[in-house]
Write a structure and sequence with these properties.
6-stranded mixed sheet, alpha/beta, Diaminopimelate Epimerase, Chain A, domain 1, homodimer, inorganic pyrophosphatase (n-terminal core), about 325 residues, globular
Chain lengths: ~325, ~325
């Protein structure tokens, strides 16, 4: 469970700005299962440092999905020997990619917005008020350089818009929208990016959504919605990893649903469970019953059993936590 | 088809501001099939004028849907005798509600953002650069009063967010996001409103989406997606008018789809066709072939025939326009 209070003392934006200005030769890390925020934040920082005449790379993340391939391509390095290592949007060393193992204990600067940041880095710029790490990077770069380029703005817009579900999620604040507005003014093609990121679905995704909606099971008068996503369903629809993004959110939108559960059959026929809840029920407490964890409104657990047995177990855990 | 250039001369914001300041006893009109923009704009203006000590009402719109009932309730009047009549977000007198017929030719001030506004009013405040009429009303009220109340901000946020699909649509600009940011700063509960308006679906809506996705037919290698929505489907899913909102957008999101067609069976078994296109094809030209019309990327036509015959006709029209 996240605590609402950060566990560590953050640098000020001015301190982080000076720290970067005085140094050179940076490698920037992103987290496993990379999303738009870690990728956009890392690449934007890399791009702005390069524009300032410095040498900077982002450590290749092999899990990057189709959606972000083009935007991130110019920044990857596999074997760059840096003087300084920076992490972007990474809350703990447990979220490092395999090729970043050797940098554990050696991060010079962590830039993050997770209140749960463990303080693994020598220096941390932490802003838990930011909806996305991209918001924090934007304020930093604006402080450092006064203005940002179109390329940097585009990468930051990707970070800001994806971490807020295109400004729909509860983390969106007045500052988030102001930052997004300034990014468009700096040249980010906001409408084009939102069309590409939020209003384009593959046929496979559409088929998958249809399968999920067709296979929903409701419990407790519609307050619990459960779906089992089997390998057969995934193969039938032609969905790849990109198409599976955020599928747990689909039935959480349904009016009256308090707990939404997604049980996804893995290729080895074990089960990966996602639980989303409204404020009424603690998702983290439900998953903790089975050895998992997460946030109060979004949590998960992997079980070494088939999906139908997993379904029984998680529904029992819901009953134990939500009387 | 809309022209990109307004046909009429707009008042300046300062002129419209002075015009309102010097007058009293206003009735404000909304358009048929009211959306969040016409309702939010009209009620926000009404609320701000009342807070300034003036008498103002919004003429009851009997087509208002469940989603907006609570927000609009305090402002309705049925038989108020005004000194001045204002229209909000209405492009032409053809879009007046039946109870507003008597005000045709008698509108004192039209506030609008449609470039196609016909100039039916004695005075017009027209800003075709605004993504929503709410954006125009916000700039006007900020000019008039310097600041706006939480209630006014809430109504304007509804206008701004609904007309941009929660900032996802191509009409969203840097100014739109800046206005939304300022509305949250003025007290609009942005996250709560977006949750209610965009992240809550009824079970009936979910069932309907599922039916639509299950019944899609693709043509021309996936570039044309067509769905027929029958009365039987509507009844089976339990969908009401609120649940039918924007259903034409569902299959327009699919990757590779250039033309998406929705043929909806009416209660009298005639057909209502919606056509959405990407920039490659002119939706208005397709519908014009059958006597309908609209914009370049969104158009429609009603046909006095059954849905299957309507399907043949519209697909033929697509072939004629898009060779």
């Amino acid at each position: 469970m996240d605590s609402a209070l950060p566990k560590i003392t953050s640098m000020t934006t001015d301190e982080a700005s000076k720290w970067l200005k005085e140094r050179d030769n940076f490698l920037i890390l992103t987290h496993i299962r990379p999303d738009g925020d870690t990728l956009g934040s890392a690449c934007a920082l890399c791009n702005a440092l390069r524009e300032d005449g410095k040498t900077a790379f982002v450590l290749r993340n092999n899990q990057v999905t189709r959606r972000y391939t083009d935007y991130t391509a110019p920044y990857w390095a596999e074997d760059f020997e840096p003087e300084y290592v920076i992490s972007a949007d990474i809350a703990s060393e447990g979220l490092f990619t395999p090729n970043a193992e050797k940098y554990k204990g050696k991060i010079d600067l962590a830039i993050d917005h997770h209140p749960s940041n463990t303080g693994f880095a020598k220096n941390t710029l932490l802003d838990p008020e930011s909806a996305s790490c991209g918001e924090t990077v934007y304020e930093l770069l604006k402080h450092m350089f006064g203005a940002i380029s179109k390329e940097t703005a585009t990468l930051l817009f990707i970070a800001v818009t994806t971490d807020t579900g295109c400004f729909r999620y509860g983390n969106t604040t007045a500052r988030t929208l102001r930052v997004a507005s300034e990014l468009i003014e700096a040249g980010a093609p906001g409408a084009e990016l939102n069309k590409r990121l939020f209003r384009t679905k593959t046929q496979a995704r559409v088929n998958l959504e249809s399968e999920i909606l067709n296979n929903l099971e409701y419990g407790r008068d519609g307050k619990i919605a459960t779906v089992v996503v089997t390998q057969e369903m995934i193969k039938k629809t032609g969905a790849d990893e990109d198409d599976m993004e955020d599928i747990a959110a689909i039935h959480g939108q349904i009016e009256g649903v308090v707990v939404s559960i997604t049980i996804r059959e893995q290729e080895d026929f074990t089960s990966k469970i996602s639980v989303r809840t409204s404020k009424l029920v603690d998702a983290g407490a439900i998953c903790a019953k089975l050895g998992g964890g997460g946030h109060a409104m979004a949590a998960g657990v992997n079980l070494n059993c088939g999906v139908w047995e997993a379904r029984e177990k998680i529904l029992k855990a819901v009953d134990e936590v939500w009387k």
